[in-house]
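Page 42, continued from yesterday. The earlier attempt failed because a stray header line got pasted into the input along with the sequence. Redoing it now with the clean sequence only.
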Amino acid sequence: MFVLYDLVIIGGGPAALAAAVYAARQKVSFVVVAENIGGQTAISADIENYLGFPATNGAELSGFFEKHIRKYGIDVKEGEKAVDLRKSGEGFIVKTALAEYESRTVLIASGKKPRKLNVPGEDRLYGKGVTYCATCDAPLFAGKDIAVIGGGNSAMDAALLAEKYSNKAYIVNINPELTGDAVMADKIKNSKKIAVFNNSRTTEILGEKSVTGIKFSQGGSNETISVQGVFVEIGYIPSIDFDRLTGKNKWNEIIIHQENFETNLTSVPGVFAAGDVTDVPEKQIIVAAGEGVKAALSIFKYLGSETKGY
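This time it went through. Structure tokens are written below.
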């Protein structure tokens, strides 16, 4: 049976779910298309700056997100990844591998995804020692040697987390020195279990059935170290493979028109965006939630609804 929704929300992180709660209270017709509940929040480590939760972690906070949306019986198509967004006669069509959803408006709140190294062995050994989530997988490498690829805050955080479980952690950093938080960098330098290779470019991940080592170039020479795990921590890129409609900046983030910044409106009337997928500079969980609410309120106005019940 054909259904024309008022709104399709793409994403399962704080921006998408905050917008969904407001949409449920506004009683607009909508559906949420999400790969998972929580997004990047679900794989975050300690969180101490989310109002109302002095000390929590990503898994716990995502659990509260899910409990909140279940209270309203929100229709979440979990496990469905958006693969295409296109215009239709009455609005837009969001396509997944399983279905198509047509709506008058769309909110893109799909967040970001880990940046890949794109080296031999990476894809083949994913889940066999290669991971993009130290928070999720660090305990699996207890007593083993691991390599963290990267040199920023996320890489240092991963190495310090791995230190609690692993025998030895190596940071392979393409830059001349570690960047990011000085306190974490000092902890790295003072650790007896963490070694740092600066000016080093990872060239290959080794192993047949599982990771056995990595190759990297340093100062014109090629080096190999034996490890059983590789944590790739080189940043994130916007999750917008499905979106060929909206305008993007040089980082491929969706541009929220500056003259209408408060509306979360994209270059396409009827398509809104919120959270880390946009050019809003502050990439924080609480900021994303607020951006989702802003977008929802703007969408209600766009649809001609009375903004009540929030």
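Notes: The chain has six helices and 19 strands.
Reminder to self: strip header lines before submitting.
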